[in-house]
Amino acid sequence: MTREKIKPGDDTKELSQDPNDLVLFNDDVNTFEYVIETLIDVCGHDPYQAEQCAMIAHYKGKCTVKSGSVIELKPPYDEMLNRKLSVSIL
Asked: Does the reported pTM lie above 0.90?
């Protein structure tokens, strides 16, 4: 019976896939309706979830609207920037 030796650092694939967050920040420019519509279109939120995220961002200053790898978050990040929303990948 042989055992496979695992070297430290062999799990780098797992470490590189740490989830990141797409964070929406409150602004005084965009309406609730516009933010909600964007979250539905871009992030795939249902209307209730989009409304809740918009309210959290408004009252708390920010809200995580999507999680995943940077590669997964880059397209919605770019689209939300194109739509003039304040977002960041953290």
From this structure: no
**Does the domain at residues 19-89 carry the CATH identifier 3.30.1390.10?**
yes
Per residue in 27-58, pLDDT (tens digit) is 999 999 999 999 999 999 999 999 999 999 99
Provide the 10 A C-beta neighbour count for residue 65.
26
Q: Tell me the DSSP string of 33-74.
A: HHHHHHHHHHH---HHHHHHHHHHHHHHSEEEEEEE-HHHHH
Cα 67 to chain centroid distance, Å, stands at 4
Residue 17: count other Cβ atoms within 10 Å of its Cβ.
12
Domain map of the chain by residue range?
19-89
State how far the Cα of 38 lies from the Cα of 22, in Å rounded to an integer: 14
List CB contacts of 7: < 8 A, sequence separation 6 or more: none
